Amino acid sequence: MKEQEPRGGRIINNGSIAAHAPRPHSVAYTATKHALTGLTKSLSLDGRPYRIAVGQIDIGNAATDMTARMQSGILQANGELASEPVMDVADVARTVRHMAELPLEANVQFATVLATNMPYIGRG
Fold first, then answer.
1. pLDDT at 119
2. Are 114 and 85 in contact (CB under 8 A)?
3. In whole angstroms, how far apart are CA 12 and each of 34, 72, 114?
4. pLDDT digits over 51-100, tens only?
């Protein structure tokens, strides 16, 4: 993106709400998502002179193979198992599309999209 003519472009990193409120036994996943947030901020700053816009989407409980176990019960911070709602992955795709379609003069630095009733707010 620095070398192309015209310069510029957009990078959208796939973060996670785990960087803000981790789940039990998720140290490796949580650490990498924290690192990704730092990478997003650094790239955003370093990309400015080259018209490179960098943002991040933090996703919570999109219905994928990875989250299939959420509905049957997953370990919570208090040690209990609880079923968690999921959302349609198309809702994530719409958010990414919105971020991608902005002109390079505008940027969504961080977006959080999650299942409305998942136990994120107040977790941890």
1. 84
2. no
3. 15, 31, 17
4. 999 999 999 999 888 888 888 888 888 889 999 999 999 999 999 999 99
For 71, half-sphere exposure in the C-beta direction (CA atoms, 13 angstrom radius) is 11
Q: What distance in Å separates the CA atoms of residue 118 and residue 68, rounded to the nearest whole number?
A: 14
User: Identity (one letter) of the amino acid at 97?
Assistant: R
Phi then psi dihedrals of residue 26, to 5 deg? -125, 30
Check 29, 37, 96, 123 and give the catalytic one: 29
15 bridge partner residues: 58
DSSP character string of the chain = --SSSS--EEEEEEEEGGGTSPPTT-HHHHHHHHHHHHHHHHHHHHHGGGTEEEEEEEEE-BSSGGGGGGTT-EE-TTS-EE----B-HHHHHHHHHHHHHS-TT----EEEEE-TTSTTTT--
The 10s digit of each residue's pLDDT in 101-115 is 999 999 999 999 999
120 assigned to active site: no
Alpha helix positions (H), the chain: 27-47, 89-101
